[in-house]
From TrEMBL:
The keyword Transferase applies. CDD domains: AdoMet_MTases. The lineage of its organism: Bacteria, Bacillati, Actinomycetota, Actinomycetes, Kitasatosporales. It comes from the Bacteria. Residues 56-154 form the Methyltransferase type domain. Keywords: Methyltransferase, Transferase. SUPFAM superfamilies: S-adenosyl-L-methionine-dependent methyltransferases (SSF53335). Gene3D superfamilies: Vaccinia Virus protein VP39. One of its GO terms (biological process) is methylation. Pfam families: Methyltransf_11 (PF08241). InterPro entries: Methyltransf_11, Methyltransf_Superfamily, SAM-dependent_MTases_sf. One of its GO terms (molecular function) is S-adenosylmethionine-dependent methyltransferase activity. It comes from Streptomyces beijiangensis. This is Methyltransferase domain-containing protein. The keyword GTP-binding does not apply.
Length: 279
């Protein structure tokens, strides 16, 4: 019997050469989002990467974060991106070459990192755990590869914080429930601190940032995907869906639209005195 795979195209089990362009477009859009940039800036300040350190970006995608980390560790250190999708990995390598970055990229899975124990100073993992059915295994892997005193950054969305306004409350609730069904681990953001602690790591700081869509433009691909899903599941009918589309369009024309989801972050370290439970 074939085990059903998580729905997300970013999950390692769903790697396909056919969807690379779509994934690149989504990742590039996220890179340019103000909320993502602000939360990354907070995380960089909190983790304080230093020259000469060994850093790993788990689920490195197009390599934008790995290139930033490579610049921070300078030529004295090393920055490695771990990415299961060969198409994304090839693009990351190309962009690193074009940028003159020393960042390197290898194949790998968050739950089985191709790294020895206690070999890394900093692990960065952004918007990966939401795609994993067993995120705890990945956090235990992060703890395993960290050196004593090593730090980890986890940034992830919590899809239960999705807000869409205006619209009939029941219709909006039907649409936003689709965001929960689209991720293997939709409550990832709220679980970060507990997972780090369970892996034997010491939490140092926490942060959050609402990722806001343009208040004057409806993100139609996302909204229509959620709307069609709600109709197929029988949560609303076509008339309710179309009325919501009209209300969102009218609100956008007035600059009164609100669409958001909150992303959370946590920074922790491995104690020099106490080994993580995963080792």
């Amino acid at each position: 019997m074939v085990k059903p795979q998580p729905t997300s195209e970013f999950n390692a089990h769903n790697v396909s050469s056919a969807n690379v362009d779509r994934l690149v477009a989504a990742l590039d859009a996220q890179d340019s989002a103000d909320g993502v940039r602000r939360l990354r800036a907070w995380a960089r300040a909190a983790v304080a990467v230093r020259p000469g350190e060994v850093v790993v970006d788990v689920g490195s995608g197009t390599g934008s974060v790995a290139r930033t980390l490579a610049a921070a560790v300078t030529a004295e250190g090393s920055a490695l991106g771990i990415e299961p999708n060969p198409g994304l990995r090839a693009l990351a390598e190309q962009r690193a070459r074009e940028a003159g970055s020393a960042a390197r990229f290898v194949a790998g899975d968050a739950s089985a990192l191709p790294l020895p124990d206690a070999s890394v100073d900093v692990v960065w993992c952004e918007r990966v755990l939401q795609h994993l059915a067993e995120p705890e295994r990945a956090v235990e892997e992060f703890a395993r590869v960290l050196r004593p005193g090593g730090r980890v950054v986890l940034l992830d969305s919590d899809w239960a914080t999705t807000v869409l306004h205006p619209g009939d409350p029941d219709t909006v609730a039907a649409l936003t429930s689709g965001a929960l069904a689209a991720a293997a681990n939709p409550y990832a953001g709220r679980k970060l601190v507990g997972q780090l602690s369970a892996a034997g790591l010491v939490v140092d700081d926490r942060g959050s940032q609402a990722l806001l869509q343009d208040h004057a433009s409806v993100a139609w691909p996302l909204v229509r995907m959620l709307g069609e899903s709600a109709v197929r599941r029988g949560l609303i009918d076509a008339a309710q869906r179309d009325r919501l589309y009209e209300e969102l369009t009218e609100a956008a024309a007035l600059g009164a639209l609100h669409m958001s989801v909150t992303m959370f972050g946590a920074v922790a370290h491995r104690s020099a005195q106490k080994s993580p439970s995963a080792t």
